[in-house]
Amino acid sequence: MKLRVRINGADHELEARTDESILDVVRRELGLLSVRETCGIGVCGACTVLLDGEPVSGCLLLAPLADGREITTVEGLGGDDPVQQAFSDAHAFQCGYCTPGMILTAKRLLEETPQLTEDDVRAAMSGNLCRCGSYVKIVEAVLQAANA
Amino acid sequence: MSDPRATGSARYAEDFELPGMLHARIVRSLFPHARVVRVDASAVPESCIVLTPDDVRDLSPYGCQIEDQNVLAERARHVGDPVAAVAAPTPEQAEEAVPLVEIDYEQLPAVFDAVEAAQPGAPLLHETAAAGGAAAYFAMRPQPGTNICHRFRIRHGDVDAGFAEADAIVERMYRIAGAQHAHMEPHACVAHWDGNRLELWTGTQTPFSMRDDLATIFGIPPEAIRIVSLPMGGSFGAKTFVRTEAIAAALARKAQRPVKLVLPRSEEWQTLNRHPATVTVKLGARADGTLVASQTTCYADTGAYADCGPGVAQKMGFAAPGPYRIPNVRVDAYCVYTNLAPNGAFRGYGQMQSTWARERALDTLAEQLGLDPVELRLRNIVRDGDVYCTGETLHDVRFAECLEAAAAAVRWSEGRRGKGIALVMKGMQTPSRAAIAIERDGDDYVLRCATTEMGQGAKRALSLEAARLLGVDVARIRFPDPDTSLVPYDTRTTSSRSTYMMSRALAEAVRDPRGYGEIRNEGGLDPDTGQGIASTHWHQGAAAADVEVDEETGKVTVTHLHTTTYAGRVVNRLGAELQTEGSMIMGLGTALFEEVAFEDGQVINANLSDYATPSFADVPTRFTYELIEEDGADVHGLGETALPPVPPAVGNAVASLGIEVDELPLKPETVLAAMKVRV
Ligand code: FES
Ligand code: FES
Q1: A55 lines ligand 1 (CB under 6 A)
Q2: CA of A61 to the centre of ligand 1 (A)
Q3: What is the mean pLDDT of residues B355-383?
Q4: Whole-structure pTM value
């Protein structure tokens, strides 16, 4: 199928199969490699993208469901986004594989709830796993971004 | 500008591609032990390349310590053993081709428990318990006619006489479940042949072992192989030695095209896990708490192939007595084949298992003697200049300090109900060799060494150290991905050795006019007596936990977790903190719920929903740690030290409530069962 989708601010018409995930499409068609597959079943958040601003698992989102909608990946934040900056400053990563998903989830959380406590962050981000165990510094980064 | 990890521009092995490459999938055995009688690939479309046992008959068996594994199995020894492989123009086509390869099997009897497998009469996995291959770096002691591929012993003093003197004796059997590394990036590699030269881009902690093993397999000189180790999205020991690379290379040889192989998540559980173990500990002490004898028997279940299991069993064995003065010590450690998926290196490498057993046994002993567990440990703790049961003298010893600090952190003196404490004494790869070359490129310095990056921050630590030694800004240090055709030989990036070894080699290189530095740590143990040098450098630490147990469900909640680690001189503070936090959190997973579950040899929780790893919700509300630093001291690797003491600290805390659990993980069912026989 032809998939019409706005990605990181630009309109695209992409070649996609109806049975594949948006994760596979953005990696293959656009080289947006920050969207990564770990579990493939919606439990780890490594594949998180924003769909019309809401974090969703890219591994579960079938390509046709993104048709006509807007997708943001971490590449689309530009690099100077306060959340990206806060993750860098707090050094909230080790291997960094989970980081894009963490940042996108945090981004939406901060938009919704600007006044955050540590518990809020933990609860809201519990669908994102970090096997390196960088959780403490990730919470710090999100709180830092909230206060920035 | 933000760090590449935050902008999304970081690249991993999984992202590497070559023009014209094919995508591979492995066809795996459905049975735990079976002879492959027929492989029929006639239904596979022409566009796919199929690799069958016929294609690899000219290839030699391999293994980093015992050469017992073939590129494809003609006798499958575990569910998931690679029997064939396919390569296709797209990953989807490769996936679709897998079920089209028809395989007939003839099933053989199988064994799934290491203790059972070690008994005479158990079904044998490898007819000739293989003699140590050339790649082994210590003497192997396979026990012919059994599934024991290595036996390690320590003989120190006279344990029988010791136990005869004891006023109290504790003897218990401990079981530790297998675990999955669950690194977020799967195993991924790309293989390419250029004539008779093999090039391989892969996420590996062991580029030189990989090169040497592939040279053995393909019968070509090591110099004809180039391994580039790309950054890894986590590894924790899983991306070591040959995993998927030989199959990718064999497929590329047949296809005459580059081949990329990325493991589907579920196949990670069929590729490598952590050794399940059964450890029996017997401790004897006088009434005043003085330890007089220690006896440990370890069975490390290495699965279908030895991999580095002999080394794991040996470390499990030599770390078992722990940081205590004990005049009479006996250790027997066995590495045993079973028909489970291979087990190998995992953060903490063998020492987690024996630390759990010993530290739990010490608390049971303290209880029996009516002593405070901290008191009992302090009474026996090793001090500077003491001689370990291997005959080596211990230097720069900080165990007492670690223990006291950890006890203070959980306010031990104010009451110890719900609290537990444990110590770890962890060895580092010995013997080993590290080398580095520093090249000038304009104003920049280029570090050429084989230290790999898996998120542990080695590149950062060594760059900072190079900048400090050279007296330049760290921005002028470059550290390209290790490429075996460009960097000097290094043993491997494991056992928290790289910052320590490589920073010393670096100091040499800075002093050397040619910019080359090399460091060796010599040593090793006699496998029959355990005498020699186990580790030129010991990692030292303690953990303390405060827990609550839900009386109805048996669920354990850790309300406070603390570790104290001796860090020596800290090179990369953020890295040291992150590695410590990560080790503690992984330790909690091991303590509370991580377990590879099997049914008839088949992993039944091979996905990240049924196999849970710690999430934000699992980090205790109080989560503290301290690094004991010493200016001018050695650099101590910190990649693993805070993991092994966490499970026993939690287990001892649970035991302080009268709930004695000898088995890891402390899952609710296990805890509930222990509550029924509460002491
Ligand atoms: S890969 Fe999509 S949630 Fe894990
Ligand atoms: S930093 Fe490695 S998985 Fe999060």
Answers
A1: no
A2: 10
A3: 98
A4: 0.96
